Amino acid sequence: MLMVNGGWHDRPPGQNGESLLVRWSEAIRLMRSDSVVADEVDALFAEVPFPDGVPRTIAYQLATAAGADDIGIRLKSDLLDHLRAVAPDHAATAAAQHLVDAAAQVAKRILLTSGNLLLLDNDRWGHGLESVVGRQRRDDGTMRLNPRELWSVTIG
User: Fold this and answer.
1) In which domain, by residue range, is 52 found?
2) Is the pLDDT of residue 153 over 90?
3) For position 54, what pLDDT does the model report?
4) How many structural domains does the chain have?
5) CA–CA separation, 102 vs 2, rounded Å?
6) What CATH number is associated with residue 109?
7) Which burial class, exposed, middle or buried, applies to 3 when counting CB atoms under 10 A from its CB (0-12, 13-18, 19+)?
8) What is the sign, positive or negative, of the torsion defined by CA atoms of 20, 26, 28, 31?
């Protein structure tokens, strides 16, 4: 991701479009350290119905894994709600919730500014962003647009 223009950064933390970064191995390690949910990690390797109708596993083995917790994760923002609706009793649904909880605990928040470049391995890292204000009303009633511009590319 290349932040071409960071836009407005005058809001309280969490409202400036900060990038949220999660190293999946850290979230998995946190899950395994909790005796209540440690066994749920295995459920992430079970096939579940994804929103596009294709059954997949949430977790998958990496050919270049550096250890047991170095696994790939498929977790888009709509997956957990989808699983709650179509597979509420599937073990992977509860495991996905605990993965989301663990990810929130280990997430790193980074405020990218103009010219910053961030390269991520999408197999090993999850990424998203905090809330960002897209426009605001000026005193004269006209709207002002946030000049924020972020470029993203996927390299195969």
Assistant:
1) 2-151
2) no
3) 95
4) 1
5) 27
6) 3.60.130.10
7) buried
8) negative
**DSSP letters spanning 85-148:** HH-TTSHHHHHHHHHHHHHHHH-EEE---TT-B----TTTEEEEE--B--EEE-TTS-EEE---
Separation between Cα atoms, residue 151 and residue 6, nearest integer Å: 11
For residue 91, tell me if it sits in a domain: yes
Give the tokens for residue 55. 């059954």
What mean pLDDT do residues 12-34 have? 95
What single-letter amino acid sits at 132?
V
Question: pLDDT band for position 154 (50/70/90)?
Answer: confident
Comparing C-alpha atoms, which of 62, 81, 80 is closest to residue 70? 62
Dihedral (Cα; 76, 79, 81, 82), 10-degree rounding: 150
- Domain membership of residue 93 (yes or no) is yes
Residue 156 lies in a domain: no
Distance CA 156, CA 154 (A): 6
pLDDT at 156 over 80: no
* pLDDT tens per residue, range 60-117: 999 999 999 999 999 998 999 999 999 999 999 999 999 999 999 999 999 999 999 9
